[in-house]
């Protein structure tokens, strides 16, 4: 499969000024930008920058960013599932994972998270992919938002549904370890039934739940 990437960009006015939501961004471009000090959800900003640069170098890797001048204040990543996860056990060529989405606290509530997703799917090539995302409550900023797990999940689901993600049941132990965790997926318009069947087999190990 050829991983075609077409760059798109939009400008949004926020209470902190004009920002660009753009991507997929090349590793060379990412290298040139600063990463905001508040991008700490997964690892320190400089380490996160390094990780995103590496993802951008991958053939299937896609990074969409929110940029205020030369500073990245938010991003979303797409790449093949982690080899240690169940979702990589059958390497489906056109199944990628929304691996991480992060927006610094100052920009939350202004709709930029939704715009990250919308710009991601402006690229027609995304219609060739089945895109999955695994939502785990321990990654959520409950303290910073003041939301409980159920309200946060509702917010995440609502945001993902804007671009066509739907909830999918699974018996994956990490997801079933807490009722707020969930698996969502977006099936591109050109995804064939064989891909969906293989995904269904990954979702359930226990046949009686299939």
UniProtKB/TrEMBL annotation:
Signal peptide: none annotated. PROSITE patterns: GNAT. The keyword Transferase applies. GO terms for molecular function: acetoin dehydrogenase (NAD+) activity; acyltransferase activity, transferring groups other than amino-acyl groups. Pfam families: Acetyltransf_1 (PF00583). It comes from the Bacteria. GO terms for biological process: acetoin catabolic process. The keyword Cell wall biogenesis/degradation does not apply. This is GNAT family N-acetyltransferase.
């Amino acid at each position: 499969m050829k991983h075609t990437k077409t760059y798109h960009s939009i400008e949004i006015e926020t209470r902190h000024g004009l920002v660009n939501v753009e991507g997929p961004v090349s590793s060379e471009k990412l290298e040139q930008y600063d990463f905001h000090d508040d991008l700490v959800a997964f690892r320190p900003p400089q380490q996160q920058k390094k990780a995103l640069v590496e993802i951008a170098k991958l053939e299937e890797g896609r990074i969409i960013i929110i940029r205020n001048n030369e500073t990245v204040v938010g991003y979303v990543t797409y790449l093949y599932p982690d080899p240690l996860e169940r979702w990589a056990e059958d390497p489906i060529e056109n199944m990628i994972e929304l691996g991480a989405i992060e927006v610094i606290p100052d920009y939350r509530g202004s709709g930029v998270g939704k715009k990250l997703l919308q710009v991601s799917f402006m690229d027609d090539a995304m219609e060739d992919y089945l895109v999955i995302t695994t939502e785990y409550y321990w990654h959520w900023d409950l303290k910073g938002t003041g939301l409980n797990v159920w309200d946060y999940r509702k917010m995440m689901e609502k945001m993902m549904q804007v671009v066509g993600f739907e909830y999918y049941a699974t018996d994956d132990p990490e997801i079933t370890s807490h009722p707020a965790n969930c698996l969502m997926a977006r099936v591109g318009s050109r995804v064939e039934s064989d891909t969906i069947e293989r995904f269904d087999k990954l979702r359930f190990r226990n046949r009686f739940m299939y």
